[in-house]
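Blinded run. Sample ID left blank on purpose so nobody reads anything into the name before looking at the predicted structure. Input follows.
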Amino acid sequence: MRQRDMRDSSEDSPMSIRIVVADDHPIACEGTVAVLGQDPALSVVGVAHDGEQALALCGALHPDVLLLDMSLPLLPGSAVARALAGRLRAPRVVMLSAFEEPALVRAALDAGATGYVLKSAPGAALRDAVHRTMAGERVLLGVAAPDEGPEPLSAGTGGAA
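Blinded prediction complete.
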């Protein structure tokens, strides 16, 4: 478990969105942090490499958003989302996954995730998904919602391609 010192002038802003990134692949974490760092309104405050670390960091840092890999060691993403759903200061959970199977998307949403983004999405789409999630939207990028086709992986707002 690492608390990252990613502070810059944007983190002091009351409008900054505080994010914890949880992925068991270091290169995926580093890439996600770099992509998010391109938006001054986003501040990565912690990085976890397993589900237990993700829960601990969320309890200690109280992020606004948890970007959570669906497949984590020790505690899978859906179990982390379910555990956080009952907390008073729970972050909004956006699942990051390489898997687009409808059953996995449904499991994530049923566990309390507010978004599901394929890891093949461009960086701008991930940044947009964080903002849209904070605005109260359910965000599904590259995967089909129940009875709908997949939302495009573009970076447009409101799901427009």
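Unblinding after everyone has recorded impressions. Helices lie at 26-36, 51-61, 77-85, 102-110, 123-134.
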